[in-house]
Amino acid sequence: MTDGVRRQLTLAGMPLAVIDLAFDPVLRLSDAASVRYETIGIAVVLFLGLLLAARLGSQTPAVGPYVPAPGLRVDDLVFIVFAAVPGAIVGGRLGAVLDHLDYYRANPGAIVDPGQGGLTLTLAVPLGILTGALIARLLGAPVGRWLHASAMPLVFMLAAGKLIGVLGGTGQGDPTNLPWATSYGGSGPWGSLAADIPSHPAQVYEAVLVTLAIAGLVAASRLEVVARRDGAAMFVALGLWAVARFLVAFTWRDAQVLGPLRADQLLSLILLAVAVAGFVERSRAPLQSPVESRLDMDPRPA
Question: Structure pTM?
Fold first, then answer.
């Protein structure tokens, strides 16, 4: 934090951040090669999340609510993940455009400029799930079963990924005088503008709330509709995550667009409505008996 900023904060009656993070966020392998610690952390989180999805998939029966293993084909997971990437990119960009709609209205060419702006998660996650599910259906993979197996890994990655943001100063919230405010010293580069100003550690708030969502997902697994393992768990996960983002967004730096709400909060409410509708649909879906499932999978003529 510069001396000028410190003087301004002191004059404004705002105490300095109790948590002052001053470190180099870049791992410098050589003069020509370097990588951000945040990037390494995200890669580790994604790898662990995929391992968890593969493990849960192998333990999730491929057919019938209570039919024992063999589980889902883990090789299908590779195609599903690759299929989710374009949906996540399009959704993430669309969410960023909606968050800053006034700017993109004035600069429509910047919408498709990969060097300008960024991506947001609120639409990236559901659209990534959608494109992954479409490919799973084309492969003949049981979509509902994969949605169930992927719910917990997804929430884990969303929570851990936000916490990793601390390593890069990404996701800082509004300036605040709270005693747990954080600021970043040194030259960076940091993921947030004016990272040296004491601000809400919004990325930590979200990580904590999404971790609580994991506990909620575990509790929901006792519900019969979730125990059937046909996709209801994913809608529970999306709903809990949407609530977490909605709450944390009150501390974000984004402009308010409807009363006290930011654009991303409106998107979170839409996502929550979709999650509730999906859960209700799953609860009304017919419960296929183990005998019917075996008959459906039996290739012999009747």
Answer: 0.86
